[in-house]
Amino acid sequence: MLTRERLDFRTVDRWAIRILLEAGAIHECDQHGWAKDRADPHTRDAALLLARDEPLPGLSPDEAVAAVRRVLDAVGDTCPEC
């Protein structure tokens, strides 16, 4: 029986954050460094396309898109410390 090795969720989340930053869907608070959602549907779509086209090794394109959506859903549009 073959089993597929599961990726560490922290690795997947870091990859998803990098994709979101690269696409411009999120940015960091200048004062505190928290990730903030830009609320721009075009950059969100670009991030999802990038995730589908270049998934993290070990993830299917659908899993990569789901990971990016999960991280994006967890990011707010305001900094909790501001």
Notable characteristics:
82 residues; mainly alpha; two-stranded antiparallel sheet; globular
Task: Outline the secondary-structure elements.
Blueprint: H1 9-23, E1 26-28, E2 35-37, H2 41-53, H3 61-74
Antiparallel strand pairs: 1-2
Helix pairs in contact: 1-2, 1-3, 2-3
Can you walk me through this structure?
- The chain is mainly alpha-helical and 82 residues long.
- The protein has one domain (9-74).
- It is 51% helix and 7% strand.
- It has 3 helices and 2 strands; from the N terminus they run αββαα.
- It has helices at residues 9-23, 41-53, 61-74, and strands at 26-28, 35-37.
- The protein has a two-stranded antiparallel ribbon.
- β1 and β2 (35-37) form a beta hairpin.
- α1 crosses α2 (41-53).
- The longest helix has 15 residues, at 9-23.
- It starts with 8 loop residues before the first helix and ends in an 8-residue tail after the last helix.
Which regions contain 5 or more consecutive residues with pLDDT less than 50?
A: none
Main structural class: mainly alpha
The description of the largest β-sheet is: 2 strands, antiparallel
Count up the domains: 1
The number of distinct helices, counting runs of at least 4 residues, comes to: 3
Number of strands: 2
The percent range for helix content is 40-55%
Mean pLDDT: 90
N-to-C terminal Cα separation, in Å? 52 Å
Bin the strand percentage: 5-15%
Helix-strand sequence: HEEHH
Radius of gyration: 14 Å
The oligomeric status of these chains comes to: single chain
Widest beta sheet: strand line-up: 1-2
Shape: globular
